[in-house]
Amino acid sequence: MTDPIGPSTSTIPNPSPTTLLHPRREPFEHGLLPMQKLIFTDPLQALTSLKQKLVSSSIQRVDSAALADALQISLDHARLVLDTLASVLHSESDPLVTSRFDDVDSVGADLLDLILFLYIQSYKRLLPRLHKDAAAVADVWPSTSAFDGYLSALSPLQVDEEAHQLSYLQKHLANILSLLSEPVEGEGEESLVISMEGFEHLGFLIQFEDKGSDGDFLSQAAPIFANSDPDMPAVPVPASQVLGWLLQNIASSLEHVTEKNPAKENGPPSGSDQDVVKASPSVRSPCFIEGVSKSSYVKQASDLKNSSLKVINCHDSVIYILAPLRYATIYGCSDATIVLGAVGKAVRVEHCERVHVIIAAKRVCIANCRECVFFLGVNHRPLIVGDNHKLQVAPYNTYYSRLEEHMTEVGIEATINRWDDTLELGMIDPHNSLSHPAGVSDAQAESATRLDPDHFTKFLIPNWLEGESTGSTKDNPFPLTDPCLTSQQKNQNNLGEIKQILREAPLEENLKRELSCALHVYFRDWLYASGNIRQLYCLQSD
């Protein structure tokens, strides 16, 4: 049976007027994989057949081998699917989320969660509106790529992502409920029913949020199941009634989004606006750091009440985010150094140029970046997709006093660092609504090279940035490779020898003063020439 269900005309009580339905951003922002074999021409038919095949095999949790066989993909790609699903699941208690790195295959994914994950691979991201001051960012992306005519002037903050995701759910909800439903004897629209357990799987895609509180259990927000006797199994509900009630709520939520966020025709802040921080009212929504230019910027754990962060359109700056996070996105930045504290779910770095990114995270995805260097402490293989050029990877190279505390809080293991075990997928992202150049649909993304160990240096975060917040971390918790350790020791020895030579130089006091003054002058000139002088001014004023 592959026909979508239709909404019932039966009357179902409306939720409280303070209750709003929201899409979960995480699957749409961090759960899409550019793999053609995950995208189906008719997802309802294909996934119904997949579900029936796995159910007939008595499979309730799907491991890499079963998934690879069912979708005809490699074991590496099947493992990537499970890892990515684990990073965006709504239930923190699911065994796939709580399992250790080596146990993912034996644990496997819940069948219905996997079906929903595969279904949304048909989602296409909304094309952002043009940046109001396109000329101000035109120099970020020289026109040498087929994408640059669009990407140089895009600002993802100017799109109504929530409305776009709600519209997608509105269009596909009948199919999604069909996949979560079970047939019963009968005819017509009442022949498909959905259980409370099946309804809870919708938590992967949607969430209800009351003013002042977050709704964690969908069935408690829905009047269809809310009054069920906790001591008795809930009676399955006709899927058509569930569809009608959800469509009603999506329509109300879309209306609310439109009223709350009127058409953003005025564009983003102008190029002269700096240090733009937008904290979302809900902890479920990300905090935005946008438009930092020619400056330095610091955020501590106490400054961030949200579990997700987006750093967008920041240029020629140094940004320190010394906090534990669940998700992070770095988008459209150039000529910057960005330090992210511990990120427990996933990081996505997209459309960046000449950026040094220092990340401690479980997972990282790099898309459409150029001439960037990534200093990584990651538990899973870094994923590289899209049109990338001259990327370099290196081991994690910094620390701050609360780093290990934050890593423990979000579940990052310092003993596992797969910084150089990159996995490359296709150049073209099928989830992008931009037109795609002909002839490159199956091309593999350009891989990253290892940074020359002679160029590996420790990045020092001034301890006074942390104020009164002190922790136990005294050094980089991730082990370094032998070549990097050798290079680091060589640099330290060279510095020590230079200091000793200067101390022991047979110079009269007036010549020593002249030498000291000359060194200060050269150092000051370097600070100005490199732009690092701004760090001293900006950070001292924070």
TrEMBL record:
Gene3D superfamilies: 2.160.20.70. The keyword Iron does not apply. Its main location: cytoplasm. It holds the Pfam family TBCC. SMART domains: CARP (SM00673). Residues 262-412 form the C-CAP/cofactor C-like domain. One of its GO terms (cellular component) is spindle pole. Keywords: Cytoplasm, Cytoskeleton. This is TBCC domain-containing protein 1. It comes from Gossypium barbadense.
